[in-house]
Amino acid sequence: MTATASQTPPTDRDAATLLRVENLQVHFPVLQGWLLQRPVGAVKAVDGVSFSVRQGETLGLVGESGCGKSTTGRAILQLQRSTGGQVWFRDRDLTQLNPESLRQSRRNLQMVFQDPYASLNPRLTVGDIIGEPLSVYNLATGRAKRDRVESLLQVVGLSPQFSQRYPHEFSGGQRQRVAIARALALNPDFIVCDEPIAALDVSIQAQVLNLLQDLQTEFGLTYLFISHDLSAVRHISDRIAVMYLGKLVELSDRDALYERPLHPYTQALLSAIPIPDPVLEAQRQRIILQGDVPSPLSPPTGCNFHTRCPYATEVCRQAPEPEFRNLEGHWVACHHAETINPSLERGAIAP
């Protein structure tokens, strides 16, 4: 099969696109000197990331710790100001908004943070935590606010009577439900879920994932689901983007990516997922990457992955970084994707 012109690029501009990220960059300056600090370099946490998220879908963003996933999510909401690029939510570039316009836009953009123990104010009751967004935007007061808080608690599977309790009185899974209720308070369209199950017991993770899916169906939500847990990402995502050292290396529909990964890094990640059948687990061959992830302060020349890639050649080391190309509906940044997968034909370059 060949790549066709009808296949959409990572930054699709059709009417169904809710969020569009174009060449997003987040660089942290490295300063030297005690008194007169001067920049001597930059940590490229996010370095030219582009993708789109369609209305009502879940885009999974996966990669190793330190690859820039969480920074990408925070930069989309402008909790971390970007160094370059654009973040288009509907027809507005969030990177160009003044503080008041950005504050108003955040009614439609919310975030569920990774650590439910750190993201909830221990001095406030659960009712105050969930109701705070309503007060900030002057949407409800008094009895109307209490009713909204109790309704949100019921939506996420908690008793309305819990509204007078404090965060320390809840388990980790219950705290994350409170955080989800807070994110829903303003009826947002888009929610960044930044590793929302990473700090939870395995027995609770499936409950939170199912809750997120139920809420998506009920309220028409759109998610960016950030995680390093590939099993969880497969369960909840419609499409999956794979990130390595601040860049996207692969983007595809969920089933296509799991059934035939094109990038060597994605292949290595998927090979690390345990198989519940002990016979099959003993027979399969795992891909063990050599070396450590390079520093984003001084990334390798050429392809970022060539220092750990089993297929790396001189082209990977010396040539410019590989283009993000469309190969039969798969978007992949690899010089040798056709060699690794001989059935593929060379596809179009992403605009």
What's this model, at a glance?
The protein has 351 residues and is of the alpha/beta class. It has helices spanning 69-76, 99-105, 126-136, 142-155, 172-184, 202-219, 230-236, 254-259, 264-271, 278-283, 314-318, 337-340; strands spanning 17-32, 38-54, 58-62, 84-89, 92-93, 109-112, 190-194, 222-227, 239-244, 247-253, 325-327, 330-332, 348-349. Strand 11 (325-327) and strand 12 form a beta hairpin.
Overall residue-averaged pLDDT value: 88
Major sheet: size, sense and barrel closure? 9 strands, mixed
Report the β-strand fraction as a percent range.
15-25%
| Low-pLDDT residue spans | 1-7, 345-351
> Which geometry do the CA atoms define?
globular
User: What is the helix content?
Assistant: 25-40%
Strand order of the largest sheet: 6-7-8-3-9-10-12-11-13
N-to-C CA distance: 22 Å
Query: Helix segment count?
Result: 12
Structural class: alpha/beta
Order of helices and strands: EEEHEEHEHHHEHEHEEHHHHEEHE
What is the total tally of β strands?
13
> Cα-atom Rg, whole angstroms?
22 Å
Description:
The chain is an alpha/beta fold and 351 residues long. It has helices spanning 69-76, 99-105, 126-136, 142-155, 172-184, 202-219, 230-236, 254-259, 264-271, 278-283, 314-318, 337-340; strands at residues 17-32, 38-54, 58-62, 84-89, 92-93, 109-112, 190-194, 222-227, 239-244, 247-253, 325-327, 330-332, 348-349. The chain has a nine-stranded mixed β-sheet with strand order 6-7-8-3-9-10-12-11-13, with helices on both faces. It has a four-stranded antiparallel β-sheet with strand order 2-1-4-5. It is globular and about 70 Å long.
